[in-house]
Amino acid sequence: MNSNPHSKTVLITGGAGFIGSNFVLDWIAQTGGSVVNLDKLTYAGNLGNLESLKGDTRHVFIQGDIGDGELVRRLLAEHRPGAIVNFAAESHVDRSIHGPADFVQTNVMGTFSLLDEACRYWQGLNPSERERFRFLHVSTDEVYGSLGPNDPAFSETTAYAPNSPYAASKAASDHLVRAYHHTYGLPVITTNCSNNYGPYQFPEKLIPLVILNALDGKPLPIYGDGLNVRDWLYVRDHCEAIRLVLAKGRPGETYNIGGRSQRANIDVVRSICHLLNELRPRLGGDHASLIGFVKDRPGHDRRYAIDCGKIERDLGWKVRTDFDTGLRETVAWYLANPDWVENVRSGNYQRWVDLNYNLRGRQ
Ligand code: NAD
Ligand code: DAU
Question: With CB atoms counted within 10 Å of each terminal CB, which end of the chain scores lower, N or C?
Fold first, then answer.
């Protein structure tokens, strides 16, 4: 993939989810290349995100599980991709607290099975194809644990210390990816990224949840004291980073990707309210009057921050979208796409909201 990534087909897993679908759209638009998209279509997968690719032969969608070795073997043999980008995962920390088993199944066992099939496929390629092939594993900053207010940001050498079942399952998958390089020589690269936001994010995550609750005049639930800090990255900047890592990243390396935008949760929520006051004023007054503090997330990591110096220095990547611009675009996107919103909030979404929020109460 490193010499000419654009001529190749890539196998994307989880390409109907938030970041995966943004990446599929970005890849086809920026490179003109083809995508084989393997997604199980869990509650988080949504083919509506890929509506604009309807009829485009460069996008082949297959509903299936990354843990289904036979299916993956068949797809690899049939489409002969030059790279695999693994986005597929259970991704929501609160869900991992209510039910960790799915996280172990997909994030650990699923990634293991995918790696094993990828390795077998890679071993059967001719020498120049083998040289160019990449297995890119998309991971998270949460594997590094939690920072104090004055700690330096996470770097690629920070020790792993995952705290939630989600983070532990991603850490386990990262270790398997590393081991497949060290033991079998599979040309893997792992990226560890901070909190993404932008179009098509499922409204279980903070930013879309707050936008949509505010539009409905519902409470805006802030866990704990609202001073937990996250490092926010606009999803399209993340997609660009992954494209660059595929083209120029070194096998066996890991790259941290972050937004250089640390914000306390309460400030993020206030910024959303401020934007909505301007773009969709509320009859009852300031949207911020809906803010309420609720029972904290168990084991809630206090602060994440990414040192993205390595990808900047080695690959020339840098953040393009500052947080204020990205947040404005995101709020505008949710306002402009009521049909998408309506669609994702049908079905079992309400059951999740009841499970996660009804017992929290106000603090
Ligand atoms: P998401 O929950 O929106 O999407 C996950 C996708 O994976 C869904 O389309 C789902 O149907 C699919 N999927 C789940 N289990 C599967 C399986 N067994 N087989 C095939 N497909 C399956 O997640 P996201 O926010 O887009 O995150 C994508 C990846 O990026 C994840 O690996 C996540 O850990 C990582 N990540 C996310 C963030 C973030 O802020 N969202 C930040 C850093 C890293
Ligand atoms: O850091 C990267 C991670 O970011 C990814 O690996 C995960 O897949 C992704 O879900 C995200 O995890 P977080 O737990 O940081 O994201 P979430 O949007 O769930 O929460 C962001 C912060 O907001 C966190 O401190 C918890 C808080 N929060 C969240 C929700 C849903 C609230 O205060 N209220 C809420 O209702």
Answer: C
Strands (E), the chain: 9-13, 34-39, 59-63, 83-86, 134-140, 188-193, 196-197, 220-223, 229-231, 233-234, 254-257, 262-264, 291-294
Q: 262 in ligand 2 pocket by Cβ < 6 Å?
A: no
On whether residue 47 sits in a domain, the answer given is yes
Q: What is the CATH number of the domain that holds 20?
A: 3.40.50.720
pLDDT tens-place values along the chain, 363 residues long = 444 443 479 999 999 999 999 999 999 999 999 999 999 999 999 999 999 999 999 999 999 999 999 999 999 999 999 999 999 999 999 999 999 999 999 999 999 999 999 999 999 999 999 999 999 999 999 999 999 999 999 999 999 999 999 999 999 999 999 999 999 999 999 999 999 999 999 999 999 999 999 999 999 999 999 999 999 999 999 999 999 999 999 999 999 999 999 999 999 999 999 999 999 999 889 999 999 999 999 999 999 999 999 999 999 999 999 999 999 999 999 999 999 999 999 878 988 999 999 878 666
Q: Which domain holds residue 134?
A: 10-197+232-261+299-323
In angstroms, what is the span from residue 205 Cα to ligand 2's centroid? Answer: 6
Residue 209 lies in a domain: no
Please indicate whether residue 194, judged by its CB atom, sits closer than 6 Å to ligand 2: yes
Domain count, the chain: 1
Atom of ligand 2 nearest to the CA of 94: 19
Q: Is 210 in the pocket of ligand 2 (CB under 6 A)?
A: no
Q: Is residue 219 part of a domain?
A: no
Paired sense of beta strands 254-257 and 220-223, if any = unpaired
Q: Would you say residue 340 lies in a domain?
A: no
Task: Give 223's contacts (C-beta < 8 A, 6+ positions apart).
Answer: 265, 293, 294, 295, 296, 297, 300
Using left for φ > 0, alpha for ψ between -120 and 50, and beta otherwise, residue 297 falls in beta
329, HSE (Cβ side, Cα atoms, 13 Å): 15
Displacement of CA 159 from its chain's centroid (Å): 21
CB distance 45 to ligand 1 below 6 Å: yes
Mind telling me the catalytic residues? Answer: 141-142, 166
